[in-house]
Each structure stands twice: as C-alpha cells, then as structure tokens.
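Hello,

I think I submitted the magnesium ion job twice by accident. Can you confirm which output corresponds to this input? Input:
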Amino acid sequence: MNSADSSPAGLAPAHRALSLWRLRPFVQPYLGHLTLMTTAALLATLAGAVLPLVTRQVIDGPIRHHDRGAVIPLGLLALGFGLVEAVLVFLRRWTMSASALRLESDLRQALYRHLQRMPISFHDHWQSGQVVARTISDLSQIRRFIGFGLIFMVVNSATFVIVGTMLIITDPPLGLLVLACSAPLAWIMYRFETGYRSRSRRVQEKQGDLATLVEESSGGMRTIKAFGRRDLVQDRFHDQATRLRDLELGKVRLLAMIWAIVESQPQLLLAAIMLAGSYPVVHGTITLGTLVAFVALFLLLVWPIESMGWLLATAQEASTATDRVFEVLDAEPAIVDRPHPMPLVRSTGLLRFHNVGFTYPGAARPVLHGINLTIEPGETLALVGSTGAGKTSLAMLVPRLYDVTSGRITLDRHDIRDIRLTDLRRQVGMAFEEPTLFSASVRENLTFGLAGATDDQVAEALEVAQAGFVHELPWGLATRVGEQGLTLSGGQRQRLALARAVLGRPPLVVLDDPLSALDVHTEARVERALRAVLAGTTGLVVAHRASTVLLADRVALLVDGTIAAVGSHHDLLAGDPVYRNLLSAEAELGAAS
Ligand code: DCP
Ligand code: MG
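Support: Only one job matched these inputs. Its output is below.
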C-alpha cells in the first residue's frame, strides 16, 4: 500500500500531477466555474499590480512638481482599480467554496456507490476504518485543494510571471536580482515536497488505523468490559495515537523549517532591494517613484512566495488523498452483471449445485468442493454439518454474495451468473446467523428487501417469525431500532431478521440457523408458522437442531466442505454415524417427547 513512498524523489511532482489528473471527470462539471474563478483572481491580481505604477506616477509627477491638481485624477484611478480588485475577490470567494463543496459531495457519493457495488470479499479484506477515513477526511483534503490550492497555484504562478516581468521592465538589474534570489527558494520547495509526500501518506494511513480501532472497540465494548480489558485496549489506543502524534510532529517539524526559510526570504530580499536600489536613486539613474513602485511591486510577491510551501503541501496531501480514494475506486466490483443479463421475474424455485467448489479470496484451501445438490421447487432442504464445515459459505453462494470458484449454481436451469443480479437477489429471502438491524424503524428494517410491502404482508411475516413483540414496543412498528435506537435481545433480532427474509414470500428462502437464539417454546411456535411458509417455497435451511431439521423434506450432511450424505432425517439418523453423532443429543430428546 505504501508503494508511493519508495518512488525516487524526482518522480514526486510528476506523480503528484498524474494522481490529481485522475480527478478530471469529477472536476469537469465545474470547469466553467473554476475557469471563471481563476480569471477573476487573475484580473484582481492585475488590478492590484497596476496600483504601484499609479503610485510611481503620483510620486514622480504631482508630488515632485508640487502640482496638487494632478493628484486627483490619479487618485481616482487608483481608487477605481482598488474597487475592481475588491469586487473580483468577493466574486471569487463567493463562487469558489460552493463548487468545491459540490465536487466533494459528488466524489463522496461516487465512492459510496462504488463501495455498495463491491462484493463481500472486498469488505472482508478492507478495514472499515480505512474506508471511513477515505470517504471522509481524504475527500475533504481534495476539496481544500481544488477549491483553494489549485486556484492559488495558478494565480500565484501568474503573479510571478506578471509581476516578475513588470519588475524587470521597471528596473532590469534590480528585477533580475530579485528573480535570481527566488531561484534557490524554488529548489528548496522542490526538495521539501518530496519529503512531505511520504510523511503525509503515513499520517493518513495511521488515521485510518485509528478509526478502525475506535470503531472496533465501540462495537466490542461489551466484550472489553466483561473481560475487564479496558487497560489493554487503552494501551493499544495510546500506542497508535502516540505514533500518529509523532508522525504529525514530524510533518510539523518539516513545515516549521520550511516556513522559517520562506518567511525570512522576502525580508532579506527587501533589504537587498533597499540597499541596491538606493544607489541609483541617489545618483539619479532612476527616480524615487521607480524605487517605490519597485518595492510596492515586490510586496505583491510576498504572499505568493510565503504561500508556496503551504500550497505545495496542500497539493501533496490532495494527491495522496486522491491515490487513496482511487485505490478504492479502482478495485473492480467482481460480482456484476454479465453483458445482456437475463431478466427473471419470478423463479419456479428449482435450485441446483453442479460440482460446486469455493475458495475464499486469498485462502489456500477450498472451503467447499464437489458439491452436487438439487432442491426441487417447493422443497426444503436442511443443511447440517459441524461448526466450520462450510454451511454459511454455501448459503452465501446462492444470492451471489460470493461467486463459486468452480462448477456452477443454476436457478430454473440458468446459471445464476447469467441472471440479472437485482432480479436474482429479489428471488432470494435470506436470514443470516448474525442478524443485522439498521438504525431505522422496525418497519423499515422489515421491508428492507421489499420497499413496497403491504401491511398484510408485513403482518404475515411477523406472524411467521412470531415477532408479535414489536407491537408492544413503545411506538410499535415505528420504533427505531439498531445502533441509534432501542436495543433488542438476540432472539428478538433473530425473529425480525427471519420476518425480513420471508416477507412477500420470495420463491427461494435461505435461512442460516434462523432459530438458534430462541427458547424452546418460541422455537416451536416459529417452526409451526415457518412450516406453512416453507410449504410454498424452495428452502435452504442451515440447522443445528433436530427440531429445525424436521422442517425440511430432506437433509444434506456437509462434512469437510463436501456433501457426505443426502436423505430423510430418519434414514440418516439410522444409517449415518456422523449424522447421528451431530444430532444425537437432540434426537434422544426428540424420542423422549
Ligand atoms: N472462512 C473464511 N473466510 C470467511 C468466512 C469463513 O476463510 N470470510 C472459513 C472459516 C471456516 C470455513 O471458512 O473454516 C467455513 O466457514 P463457515 O462460516 O461457512 O462455516 P459454518 O457456517 O459451517 O460454521 P458455523 O456452524 O460455525 O456457522
Ligand atoms: Mg455458519
């Protein structure tokens, strides 16, 4: 990830320009605005640069010849230019921030849209804090550069050229002296930014790490407290925060050095101008007005010189931020529609696994191999296997949360990779082992996959999941749950997730251990209601208990990532020792009742 750090120093500016160039498509819509703003800024600079010339006229004309009358038109001229400059500055400031903020928002939305398209494997791989840092702080840095840094780089460069030329015209030897002294400054800046690049990149990486740490610990707060390990996470955080501070301090040290050089440079140059300029005035080769104009012109260069280091730093940070943002944007969404995907309105529910194999990205060994299974329309298949056997992995292949790495899965005899992804996912109602509720109302959580669900459909789904408890919540279905709302128990959340999966009776229901958190009585009630739903749809139900298995028409036993046996619960119990072993305690209970 830090490959940019090792690039040879000389490549930095080229690389920076190249990274920033990639923002082109996002800048395009605001190009008109940016050009306008830059023009306004340039005109303001020009208007400002005229003032010293007027001053010269005043000193060498009316003042020298004691001609008071001539001061008035020149004074009015100066006032006019001053006003024009003020109006232009106002215009630029006013429109600049608006465009930059819009551009930032565009980029942020593009990034978020992209993140939504990325497969689960991408999110398995990326620390959430890094993603957060990139969508929030990196984008702000880019905005600061486009809205301010970029324009001033253009304006300051133009100021250098315009004012530099004017200096040389006003007094060639003095002008050349000033420009010659500016050359070392440019070189120092060049050296400085190569060092700054790697530091700012490391700071941004560290900020992402820190965000991950905060997020993880707030998510795992219960575990941390229960194990009394506050000191441990505190130490870990302290470590990281200190390292970030040190990195930032390193950055500041470099900045301080450069500021010292940059700040003292104009003063030294001014002293040099005074010394070198007084001779020709005394000897009458140039007028006093010329020297005053020269100094006034030179003063126009002070801000561009002083801001150069800071502007380059902004550019540097923006280019680093751009690299980081494009690292995300460049990641190809691996699970997408093929060209001309097949539409699918309503599947019959015939689901088949043909010699399916699956390896997690980056893993050495396949989790699943040689899976052959057929689930007929309307049939329910229970998937049984020991912990880590690959049940969840297999379930996630159906709505293409991951793609098979060998073989194929077909729905209605079509490879699911040929079906339009949104259509495929609309066919599948899924409940996960760890039910996720969003910070929204119960109703919004329920209708997450079917936004237009009717009240009857919601009531039916709640009935199936035996989730009548929602009516007892303070605001019923409108109660907010999730991270910012009411906290529900594990069993309550599981029932909501189940209701969400069966809402609208999708043709295919995939339930990953849907009843694990329920007490025996609730479980029995849910099972009764679930049986009615499963009768009409194709079901794949991961089960650990005999009672859940009994919901299914057939059972598949998953051992070490492959199907070891398929049959009815009773046949497997009688004929398969592994199966008997897995479900024996339950079976004994079942036999006793
Ligand atoms: N695995 C992985 N990467 C992931 C998820 C899982 O490498 N992102 C590994 C961990 C297990 C294997 O895959 O060794 C199977 O994991 P499953 O979650 O599919 O296992 P089960 O669902 O069968 O287990 P459990 O009954 O505990 O839910
Ligand atoms: Mg599992």
